Automatic annotation (TrEMBL):
Family in the record: Belongs to the CPA3 antiporters (TC 2.A.63) subunit F family.
Source organism of this protein record: Chelatococcus asaccharovorans
UniProt name for this protein: Multisubunit potassium/proton antiporter PhaF subunit
InterPro entries: MrpF/PhaF-like
UniProt entry keywords in alphabetical sequence: Antiport, Cell membrane, Ion transport, Membrane, Transmembrane, Transmembrane helix, Transport
Superkingdom: Bacteria
Amino acid sequence: MSAAILGWSLLLAQIFLALAMAIAAWRIMRGPRAQDRVLAMDALYVNGMLLLLVLGIGTGRTLYFEISLAIGLLGFVATVALAKFLMRGEVIE
């Protein structure tokens, strides 16, 4: 019984995360300002990272966890660089 509940909840989480990624991608394309696009990019990489974690839980493979860690690190660095670019107009001083 609990394996069936876990399977259905993982499937539902994957559907909702894919929907959230689609909405974030729409905001990246449609966003009226650069700040909206940066925030949508943040949401997109966090949802992608969470989707990989849910896949890792479902399959039991540790590769998904390592990839999601790398996505989290690279996404954070990209967000900091874009925020610095939007504030000062340059990334490297």
